[in-house]
Structures are given as structure tokens and as C-alpha cells.
């Protein structure tokens, strides 16, 4: 009997010395990170106010490459036009380090204007200007990004 009691006490003391089971943190699986609009960021989707839907910038936006005078920038900026196929009325700009899209005003430029401003956000001092065969994105008067103008670019319909 005394042996059983000693064995039980030994087991009790040994179990008190065992480390607790490690807590396991489970990371959310891809596709379980929907934002307020239901866009899955892990799948590359962001909400577009201009198009009123989730989209992937690299599929639906127009990429603007960093300008050579902007050497610290390595990521692209994207412009998304509204859903109007003929003449877009809305546009927005996604800058690399900006947490939210920036609304852009679509400007109607006169025929024959050799350097028309096509998109603008006056409050943030952002302009997108057509210069020969490219679009130039300037912030506070400094060129930051450029986009090569292709013949059938929807930016040309503005």
C-alpha cells in the first residue's frame, strides 16, 4: 500500500515538472482576409471606388513606371479608370506607399492641346499630363512616374 502511495506521489511530482504544451498560432489561410468590401488582399484584390468592385491593379489598372528622376522608387503606380467604356468620368490613382486610392478628376482638354492635363487631384497636387508618346505623373510639380502611350490606350479616350 505504501508502495502504491509513493508511486502515485512520484507521478504527481513528475507531472508537475513537465512543460506545458506549446500554444499553436494558426495563421489565416490565403483567401480568409477579406476587407470591408469583401476584397481578398492575399489574392491581390483591392477595392476600386472608380469601378465599384474588387480588382487586381496589375490586371485592370494602367501601370506607371518610376521615372529616372525618382531613383528611390522601385514599385509602380497604377491608374484605374471608371467603367464607362467610351469616355471615363472617374479615375483613381494607387501610389505604392499610399494606404488608399486617390480620386482623380477627369479633365476635358481642348482639341489640339499639345500638352494636355488629362487627370488631376488639385488637393494633393497630382497631375497626369500627356507628353508626346507618354503620360507623365507629377506630384507637387515633380515627375515621379511615366506610362508609355499605346495606340489603343483607354487613357487616350479622355
Q: Could you explain how this protein is built, in words?
A:
- With 158 residues, this protein is mainly beta.
- It has a domain at 62-157.
- It is 13% helix and 33% strand.
- It is built from two helices and ten strands.
- The chain has helices spanning 2-17, 57-60, and strands spanning 45-48, 53-56, 62-66, 77-81, 90-94, 102-106, 117-121, 126-131, 134-139, 142-148.
- The strands form two sheets. It has an eight-stranded antiparallel barrel. Strands 1-2 form a two-stranded antiparallel ribbon.
- It is elongated.
- It starts with a helix and ends in a 10-residue tail after the last strand.
- The model has no long low-confidence stretch (mean pLDDT 81).
Keywords:
158 residues; mainly beta; 8-stranded antiparallel β-barrel
Q: How would you concisely characterize the structure shown here?
A:
This protein has 158 residues and is mostly beta strands. The protein is built from two helices and ten strands.
Question: How would you summarize the topology of this molecule?
Answer:
Elements: H1 2-17, E1 45-48, E2 53-56, H2 57-60, E3 62-66, E4 77-81, E5 90-94, E6 102-106, E7 117-121, E8 126-131, E9 134-139, E10 142-148
**Approximate helicity band:** 10-25%
Q: What's the count of strands?
A: 10
Strand order of the largest sheet: 3-4-5-6-7-8-9-10
H/E element string?
A: HEEHEEEEEEEE
Radius of gyration: 28 Å
How many helices? The count is 2
Amino acid at each position: 500500500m505504501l508502495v502504491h502511495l509513493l508511486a502515485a506521489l512520484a507521478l504527481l511530482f513528475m507531472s508537475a515538472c513537465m512543460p506545458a504544451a506549446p500554444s499553436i498560432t494558426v495563421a489565416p489561410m490565403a483567401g480568409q482576409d477579406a476587407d470591408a468590401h469583401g476584397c481578398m488582399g492575399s489574392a491581390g484584390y483591392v477595392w476600386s471606388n472608380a469601378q465599384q468592385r474588387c480588382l487586381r491593379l496589375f490586371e485592370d489598372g494602367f501601370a506607371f513606371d518610376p521615372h529616372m528622376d525618382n531613383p528611390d522608387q522601385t514599385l509602380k503606380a497604377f491608374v484605374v479608370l471608371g467603367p464607362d467604356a467610351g469616355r471615363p468620368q472617374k479615375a483613381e490613382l494607387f501610389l505604392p506607399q499610399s494606404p488608399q486610392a486617390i480620386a482623380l478628376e477627369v479633365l476635358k482638354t481642348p482639341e489640339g492641346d499639345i500638352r494636355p492635363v488629362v487627370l488631376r487631384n488639385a488637393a494633393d497636387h497630382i497631375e497626369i499630363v500627356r507628353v508626346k508618346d507618354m503620360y507623365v505623373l507629377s506630384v507637387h510639380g515633380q515627375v515621379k512616374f511615366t506610362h508609355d502611350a499605346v495606340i489603343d490606350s483607354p487613357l487616350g479616350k479622355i
